[in-house]
Every structure is written in structure tokens, then in C-alpha cells.
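Input C-alpha cells:
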């Protein structure tokens, strides 16, 4: 009984009042895009998701992708849905028209991708990675590579896969053993990669692998890795798929969730070696790969958001239908019980904050790409860099909580697979692991994002948040101003401490700090929306959501902030010794 209807009115409200849609549409290159077109795109995406993707969600869970004679067969209906997805122009929404894209804003793309993930995360993993590969080629590819591959990747005729992980490496990609041997104008790739999402499938005529490998004599560690473009079929000069390349899928992983998405073990070079071409410079592969990874990290945060919304809608529908217990002598639906309302309201408040955070990152991406002022572009780039680990980690951790709560709303029926709500819980559990675990995201936040630009990135954001407090004090949620001011003060103090620390003391504080940062920013964004809602029916619930969040969700996150010395003391390794 999975339920989903794209919440277009709320999406548009957040885009306008929280993320700054009007200022995004005023950027160069978006002169032909207006709010009406944005609404139309969202409505059409919602229809496509409901009619095409949502019905396949349970099918993919119950009939997983399978490997037959080296070929990966996706679940029934996936390949046909991909063809309709491509025909609708959805894959190239944000990319330049000269490559077959539509040149629409990243803010709009963020909302559309939320819709895809709510309806069918398993399906959307394919366009997510294709989008990341396109970004890598746009940023680092040669003119010849762009001309040959982008006209196929942007529309979605071909798809892309990101190939980093090896059996002995995991997140420590610096110990990768896959090697690349020069052969004139190309390279031959030999090695094995694991956990390759959509590394092999039957939905597109070609699959372009972006593979990290090491050249002869390259330095040890990540400094010696290069990135190679390795297509499944070698294209001819006209871009037609030709000879089959020397790599194949040897296994599909059996997983807790995301059964419809093929997670492949790929082997390169069983014969003469897989043909590949260098992307960017030698030994600078991690720089190129991080273009893909940072794109994908925000994308994974949006995955969490999408699943959270779908789980909330499904639980809300069940709570209105399920009759259990009595109140005032009458049998009632469980939504009338206060504890069920508490769970549902917590789910909705968290999802609204997650959506606001993801959309803010999308709007800043547009400013980083399009703003005419170089200083403003640099500011926006820094803001996206700061927000990326928070979007990825805070949103996915909260999504796991929300999907777990959805099972709880269903009670025993939620633990039974037939109701479908357990799939959300199983599927969402990968998101805190994808693209660098959330602990790695927290380390990135405190170890890098708090230090680049001479440590200015968080302080610029704090200054902007403080500047919003007078409007909050004069608006519909004036009573929340003290809590917001207190949260900002706690965050500032923790930031000052962390910017003076290094090593284990800083790392011990990383996850609590990211959680507090995400919750504080979420509280501010909800208050922003509540203050600006006015008579807009789409924002009518926001004052109540903002109050619930600030009073029930924000304090526990702030309580986890503590002096780093104490935090490290609590992590006493002797407590983990075997008896």
C-alpha cells in the first residue's frame, strides 16, 4: 500500500520563500524560465512518477535484477520506463542545450529528483550516476571526449557508472590496485571493482564507466590515481556502439534493500585489457572523481529526502484508515491517538527541514554556476562545499529515522512485507553509507570545510542566519527567536573550539557537530518559511512545524555538543576490549 503524490505546492513554497527561486530565475541563461514553467515541470514530473515509476517500486523489490550469462536483466518494466524517461527529456534537465540538455536550474532539478526518489529510488540511481558522469566530463573531459560522449549521455541514450571501490580498499581508495597500462593513444585497464551501481544493465545501449586506476610508476596513495573513461562498447567516429570492451559483471550483490538496482562486481582486462582514455591529468584522478562524488553526495541527500516523503505519506494514509481503539465511546482511526500524531508530526517537520536544506543547496549551485559576479560565484561555491556533507549526512540519518518511524506507525503490519512500508526502511539504509559513510562526511566537515577559505565558510553562514533573527522576532514565530539565537550561539562556540583542534579530539566531535549544525540550520530554515508564509495556503502549517522542530527536535541535537576532551574520554578503547 505504498502511497505517493508529489507535494508540488509545498515544493514551490520552499523554492520561493526559503531557497530564493525568484533570484535564481533572474540569473543569466534562465531568461526563458519562469515560475509557471517551474510549476508545470513539477506537475508533469509528479504524473510521470506516479504513473510510471511508483508501480515499479514494489516490482523491483520483489523481482530483483538478475545476472544471466554475463548480462544483467533489470526488473520487469524498468527498461521500458527508462525509454519513456529518456523520451521525456528528464535525464538532461539541467545540462547545456548544445549537448542535448534543457538548461533548467539545479534548484528545479533538485525538486524533480526528490520526486523520482520518492516514487522509485532503485530506478533513480541510474540517472543519478549518469548525471555525475556528465558533470565530470563537463569539468575535466577533453573536447574530443565531450563531443563523442556528451550527446549520448546527456539525453540518456547511454548511462554512466562510477567505479572506485575495490575488495581490499573500501573507502580507502588510495590502496586501489586496478592498473592502467599506456598503449599509444589509449590505455588498457586491469583490475576489479565492487559495489558498482548500474555497472551492467539492459536499459541503455551503452554504459560508460569512470574508473580509478594507477599508472606505472605513479605515487602511492590517492596522489597516484588517475581517472579513465571506459565504455562497455567502443564507439566509432560517429558515436555508434561498436566492439565489446574487455570487462564484464561477474556477480550481483545480494543486499538488505535496493533490490531493483543492480550492484555489480566488475572485472576489467581478463584478456587483452579494457580500453580506456584518460580524463583530466595523470595522477589527478581524485580531483576529477570528486566532481562526481560531490554531485552524488548531494544526490544521496536528496535520496534520503525522497524516501522520507514517501514513507511519511504512506504512514499518514495508513493512520487515517486504520481503525483501532476508542475515544469518547467511538471507534477511531489511529491518527486520533496523540502518540501517533507525535510520530507523524515529527516525520513531517523533519522532512520539511530536509527539503529546505536540499533546495537551498540547489539554489546555491545555480548561483555558483551562473551568477555574473565572480565574487558571488565564489561565495556560492563555498556555500555548496560547506552544505554538501550536511545535506548528505544529516538528511540521510534523518531519513533512516523517518522510515523506521513509518514502520512504527503501521505497528505489526509494518513489519510484514506485504504492506510495503518495510521496503522504505530497507532501501533507505544504504544512504548513510553511499558516497562516503556519514562518519566520513562529518570528518570532511570539521577537518576540511571548517579550514578552507581561512575558516570563513561557517562564519559567513552564521552571520547571515543572525541577520534573519529580527524578521523572526517580528513574525509569526517570534516565540522561537530565543531558541534560534541560543542554537546559533552553541554552534558558534563549538566551531571556535573545533577550528583550534586537530586529530582525535576534533574527530570525536565530528558527528555530534554535524548533527547539531544540520538541526540548527533546519530550525532556521523552517522559521524562515514560517515568517514568510503570510496567507499562502501552502505555508499554513509551517508555524506549527517550526515550533515542533525547535522545541522537540533541535534540543536533543544541541545536547550532543560537548567539550571535545570529554567527548574523547567517553570513547575509551578499553571499554571495547575482549574479556
Amino acid at each position: 500500500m505504498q502511497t505517493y503524490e508529489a507535494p508540488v505546492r509545498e515544493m514551490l513554497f520552499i523554492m520561493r520563500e526559503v531557497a530564493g527561486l525568484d533570484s535564481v530565475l533572474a540569473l543569466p541563461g534562465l531568461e526563458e524560465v519562469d515560475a509557471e514553467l517551474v510549476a508545470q515541470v513539477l506537475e508533469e514530473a509528479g504524473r510521470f512518477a506516479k504513473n510510471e515509476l511508483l508501480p515499479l517500486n514494489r516490482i523491483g523489490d520483489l523481482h530483483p535484477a538478475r545476472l544471466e550469462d554475463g548480462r544483467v536483466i533489470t526488473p520487469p518494466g524498468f527498461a521500458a520506463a527508462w525509454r519513456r524517461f529518456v523520451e521525456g527529456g528528464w535525464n538532461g534537465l539541467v545540462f547545456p542545450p548544445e549537448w542535448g540538455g534543457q538548461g533548467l536550474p539545479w534548484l528545479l532539478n533538485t525538486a524533480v529528483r526528490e520526486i523520482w526518489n520518492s516514487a522509485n529510488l532503485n530506478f533513480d540511481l541510474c540517472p543519478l550516476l549518469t548525471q555525475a558522469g556528465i558533470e565530470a566530463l563537463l569539468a575535466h573531459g577533453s573536447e574530443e571526449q565531450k563531443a563523442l560522449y556528451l550527446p549520448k549521455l546527456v539525453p540518456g541514450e547511454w548511462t554512466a557508472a562510477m567505479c572506485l571501490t575495490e575488495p581490499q580498499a573500501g573507502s580507502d581508495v588510495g590502496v586501489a590496485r586496478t592498473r592502467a597500462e599506456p598503449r599509444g593513444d589509449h590505455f588498457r585497464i586491469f583490475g576489479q571493482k565492487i559495489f558498482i551501481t548500474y555497472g551492467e544493465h539492459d536499459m541503455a545501449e551503452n554504459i560508460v564507466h569512470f574508473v580509478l586506476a594507477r599508472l606505472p610508476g605513479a605515487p602511492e596513495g590517492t596522489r597516484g590515481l588517475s581517472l579513465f573513461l571506459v565504455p562497455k562498447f567502443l564507439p566509432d567516429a560517429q558515436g555508434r556502439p561498436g566492439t565489446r570492451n574487455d570487462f564484464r559483471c561477474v556477480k550481483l550483490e545480494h543486499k538488505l534493500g535496493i533490490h531493483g538496482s543492480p550492484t555489480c562486481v566488475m572485472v576489467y582486462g581478463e584478456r587483452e585489457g579494457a580500453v580506456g582514455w584518460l580524463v583530466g591529468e595523470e595522477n589527478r584522478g581524485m580531483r576529477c572523481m570528486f566532481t562526481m562524488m560531490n554531485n552524488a553526495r548531494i544526490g544521496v541527500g536528496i535520496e534520503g529526502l525522497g524516501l522520507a516523503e514517501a514513507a511519511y505519506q504512506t504512514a499518514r494514509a495508513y493512520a487515517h484508515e486504520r481503525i483501532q481503539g476508542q475515544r469518547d465511546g467511538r471507534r477511531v482511526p489511529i491518527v486520533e491517538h496523540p502518540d501517533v500524531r507525535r510520530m507523524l508530526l515529527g516525520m513531517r517537520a523533519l522532512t520539511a527541514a530536509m527539503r529546505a536544506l536540499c533546495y537551498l543547496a540547489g539554489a546555491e549551485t545555480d548561483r555558483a554556476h551562473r551568477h555574473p559576479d565572480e565574487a558571488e560565484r565564489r561565495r556560492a561555491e563555498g556555500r555548496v562545499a560547506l552544505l554538501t556533507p550536511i545535506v548528505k549526512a544529516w538528511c540521510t540519518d534523518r531519513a533512516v529515522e523517518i522510515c523506521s518511524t513509518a514502520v512504527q506507525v503501521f505497528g505489526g503490519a509494518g513489519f510484514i512485507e506485504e504492506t510495503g512500508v518495510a521496503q522504505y526502511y530497507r532501501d533507505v539504509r544504504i544512504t548513510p553509507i553511499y558516497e562516503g559513510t556519514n562518519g566520513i562526511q562529518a570528518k570532511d566537515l570539521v577537518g576540511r570545510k571548517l579550514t578552507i577559505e581561512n575558516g570563513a565558510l561557517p562564519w559567513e553562514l552564521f552571520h547571515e542566519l543572525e541577520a534573519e533573527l529580527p524578521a523572526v522576532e517580528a513574525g509569526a514565530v517570534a516565540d522561537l527567536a530565543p531558541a534560534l539565537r541560543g542554537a546559533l550561539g552553541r554552534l558558534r562556540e563549538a566551531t571556535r573550539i573545533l577550528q583550534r583542534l586537530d586529530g582525535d579530539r576534533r574527530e570525536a566531535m565530528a558527528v555530534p557537530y554535524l548533527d547539531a549544525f544540520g538541526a540548527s540550520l533546519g530550525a532556521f530554515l523552517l522559521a524562515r518559511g514560517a515568517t514568510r508564509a503570510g496567507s499562502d495556503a501552502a505555508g499554513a502549517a509551517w508555524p506549527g512545524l517550526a515550533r515542533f522542530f525547535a522545541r522537540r527536535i533541535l534540543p536533543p541535537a544541541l545536547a550532543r555538543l560537548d567539550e571535545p576532551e570529554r567527548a574523547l574520554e567517553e570513547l575509551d578503547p578499553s571499554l571495547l576490549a575482549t574479556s
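The longest strand covers residues 186-197. The chain has a mean pLDDT of 95.
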